[in-house]
Write a structure and sequence with these properties.
By secondary structure, the protein is mostly helical. Strand 4 and strand 5 form a beta hairpin. Helix 8 packs parallel to helix 12 and helix 33 runs parallel beside helix 36. The termini are far apart.
């Protein structure tokens, strides 16, 4: 058997002793369980004021709904366990007919309660805040509504129920009129002026009740509700005459997203206070997920986009607050699908206002709106379509006027990424060297402070001429003059990190030369090349060919270095790098005609002789320079040298006097020091093939050696060596060269003739015997005839 609802009826009488209002059960009322009798009579007593409506909860979970009138109190007792239909009449509507559940409450709230809200706008948010607190943990203090008419209290309660989620609206306990508020256990207590209640008692107000005074007192508690966004959004809807929609299942009893969506859908101007939630509320990405599902995000973006024009309030605290919210959402990991549409809408609004004011906003003006690179490109594309034609026309017109007038349209063109910026960069680069416009151009660049524009201007200043010649020299001279000028030079110095090499070279050159007091003093040519290479281009002698090529073109804009400067260059830069950078001609001139033969020359020749791109004559010279010390160090044999060196000398021809003499001398030295009797190929080379320079150097070496009396006496005492030299120098080879024949004849006379004077007959006979032994009787006879001739 189901739980039965009891209908109760009570009479109200006067107590003679205390003059209190008390309740006396009416005749025929069904019995009430003893354990509930006292509680029910208490609730009847506090609800007995004429016209009072009350709803209460009993200790056992039952409910009691009362209506007082005509000296009686009608009551419905719903015992514990009695069903409570989800869409049935709310307690505040139970005594109204016809009652159609929560929808009827919403309809009534949309009229009478909405009128009440508009008439008490200042009290609305504090009231709703206290209503929500009733269901907090711990529960808030009971509300006391002081009104002259109990029906006004009933409207307040109806408004509260229509604002609350369904289960909370059905759970709200109240009494619309009581003269004994201190005895009433309900959550909302309505009182009139006759109630025994001090509405201004500090203790009562601070600790016992929340008093909302509509009897001429202070009204709702001041300042309450500022941080309760459920109350604020709900109040905004009531003031607009729109009952709040209940939160969807699973959204939470006091979810903000549905209310926020309703507010954004209001046909009212966008306002900061009502439309924007604070960061501490919105920084939780979960709220935005719910907001997105509830359509809040789309509504907010639509509102912002609609308000994107230069309408008043665009820079209001609310918009800045929403920008902060957007940034914090981004920082706390909200998805791009949530952040980006909001960020774009905020940025569109900000830029639209800025363009109307003629001032492009800086990054800091955007309040840190988190725009991704893709979003920025999208925004700029949109704005370029809107503003582009006007900006391009404006800039083109202003470029023919004073430099300061270029700033506005050039700044917009930079922001939009328009091609017309190139024309602006050309104009600024042309203005910088101009004595009348240079300072203005620097001021313009400093004002715009755009690295991309700075780079474009610097690229134009440092662009090289097509090739060596007067045009390139003029460019270098102009750059040096610009680097020395002020404030242009200072501007260049501050941007060296992304300046072209030519600009860096010019600034460094001016700085290096500034240390020398006399005009025109300071490093130049090879010295300047070495200083710039160490400072700007190739520290440690290492770098890339393009860098060295540009350095070369800067130092020698219409040619190249003198060959005497090449050693200085090699002290600062690797020889292979110089070759790759186009310095082959200078290297070749130095290699083929060096001032001295030192380790630097040998090292350079060694490195370059196998390098690609070297002139064949220069390569042969390099190999020749390497072969000479290789012969001296024994890394190649004399037999190999007499084949290699002559070939290289032919390939390197025409040899400069220095190289010719150096290689001939070194080869001749080794020929002179070698016993050619043991090296027939070397001997044949010397006699039949050697160039005159080699033969001449050979003769000099022999003469120098035997200029010493000691060496001559030693030779005279060595019949084997004497026989060998006689055979070499007196040799009548049919293929002998004329210059060798002359040189050999002279050496026989000058060396062997002198040595023979130190020999006695026995030694002379020993020479003859050696010649006969080694070469036959013919050579013995030749020796004796030669001796006879020189003794005459």
């Amino acid at each position: 058997m189901g739980v039965q609802t009891r209908q109760l009826s009570y009479r109200v009488g006067e107590g003679a002793a205390t003059d209190e209002v008390f309740a006396d059960p009416g005749a025929g009322a069904p019995d009430v369980p003893d354990e509930l009798r006292d509680e029910i009579e208490l609730l009847i007593g506090v609800s007995a004021a004429p016209g009072a409506l009350s709803f209460s909860r009993l200790p056992d979970g039952g409910r009691l709904l009362c209506r007082a009138g005509d000296g009686r109190v009608q009551a419905l007792h719903l015992p514990a366990g009695a069903p409570e239909p989800a869409d049935g009449p709310l307690p505040v509507d139970a005594w109204h007919t016809p009652a159609r559940g929560r929808r009827d409450t919403a309809r009534r709230a949309g009229t009478a309660s909405a009128d009440l809200a508009r008439g008490n706008a200042a009290r609305l948010v504090p009231f709703l805040t206290d209503v929500r607190r009733l269901f907090g943990s711990p529960a808030g203090r009971p509300l006391v509504l002081a009104e002259a008419d109990p029906r006004t209290v009933e409207h307040w309660i109806a408004l509260a129920c229509a604002s609350l989620p369904g289960p909370y609206a059905r759970a709200l306990t109240f009494v619309t009129r009581t003269t004994r508020p201190h005895d009433a256990p309900q959550q909302i207590l309505g009182i009139g002026p006759e109630a025994a209640f001090d509405r201004e008692d500090p203790e009562t107000l601070a600790h016992l009740y929340r008093v909302h005074d509509g009897l001429g007192g202070p009204g709702s508690p001041p300042g309450d509700g500022r941080d309760d966004w459920w109350a604020r959004l709900t109040a905004r809807l009531w003031l607009a005459g729109v009952p709040p929609e209940p939160a969807a299942d699973g959204a939470g009893p006091f979810a903000l997203a549905p209310l926020w969506r309703q507010v954004l859908e209001l046909d009212e101007p966008f306002t900061a206070e009502g439309d924007v939630l604070p960061p501490q509320v919105l920084r939780d990405a979960g709220l935005w997920q719910a907001a997105s599902a509830a359509g809040v995000l789309a509504a907010l973006v639509e509102r912002l986009t609609g308000a994107a024009g230069p309408a008043p309030g665009g820079g209001s605290p609310g918009i800045r607050q929403l920008a902060t919210v957007c940034r914090e959402l981004h920082d706390n990991g909200a998805g791009e699908a949530i952040v980006e549409p909001l960020a774009l809408a905020l940025a569109r609004r900000r830029y639209a206002r800025a363009y109307a004011d003629g001032v492009l906003p800086r990054e800091e003006d955007l309040g840190g709106i988190p725009l991704s690179d893709a979003a920025r490109r999208r925004l700029r594309a949109e704005l370029r379509d809107t503003w582009g034609p006007r900006v391009e026309k404006d800039l083109a017109q202003r470029l023919s006027g004073p430099v300061p007038a270029w700033a506005g349209p050039l700044e917009l063109a930079l922001f939009l990424g328009m091609d017309v910026v190139d024309r602006g960069a050309d104009a600024v680069a042309a203005a910088l060297p101009d004595p009348g416009q240079g300072a203005q151009a620097v001021a313009l660049l400093d004002r715009l402070a755009d690295p991309a524009l700075d780079r474009r201007v610097l690229d134009r200043l440092g662009a090289p001429a097509s090739g060596p010649g007067p045009e390139r020299r003029r460019r270098v001279e102009d750059l040096l003059a610009l680097a020395a000028a002020r404030p242009q030079g200072t501007w260049l110095e501050r941007r060296l990190e992304y300046a072209p090499l030519a600009v860096r070279f010019a600034v460094a050159t001016v700085q290096l030369r500034s240390r020398h007091p006399a005009p025109g003093d300071g490093p130049a040519g090879g010295e300047l090349f070495a200083a710039l290479a160490a400072r700007e281009a190739v520290p440690g002698g290492r770098g890339d060919a393009r860098t060295v090529r540009e350095l070369w073109a800067f130092v020698w804009p219409d040619g190249g270095p003198d060959r005497t400067e090449v050693p200085t260059l090699l002290g600062a830069c690797d020889s292979l790098l110089l070759l790759q950078a186009g310095g082959g001609e200078a290297l070749g001139a130095w290699l083929t005609d060096p001032d001295r033969f030192d380790p630097l020359l040998l090292d350079t020749a060694t490195r370059l002789r196998t390098a690609p791109g070297l002139d064949p004559r220069v390569r042969a010279t390099a190999e020749l320079l390497v072969a000479v010390p290789a012969l001296a160090e024994g890394r190649i044999s004399l037999r190999e040298a007499v084949h290699t060196v002559p070939r290289l000398r032919r390939q390197a021809a025409p040899l400069t006097p220095a190289v010719d003499e150096h290689t001939a001398r070194n080869l001749a030295v080794w020929l002179a020091r070698t016993d050619l009797a043991r090296e027939p190929q070397a001997m044949r080379y010397l006699v039949c093939q050697a160039e005159e320079a080699v033969v001449t150097e050979y003769g000099r070496c022999v003469r120098r050696h035997y200029d010493s009396a000691d060496q001559l006496i030693t030779l005279a005492g060595n019949h084997v060596r004497t026989a060998s030299l006689f055979h070499l120098w007196f040799h009548a080879d049919e293929q002998r060269t004329a210059h060798w024949e002359r040189m050999a004849k002279n050496l026989c006379e000058e060396v062997l003739g002198r040595a023979a004077r130190h020999m006695d007959d026995a030694r002379l006979a020993a020479v003859a015997a050696r010649l006969r032994h080694d070469h036959g009787h013919t050579w013995e006879e030749a020796w004796n005839k030669w001796l006879a001739r020189i003794r005459r």
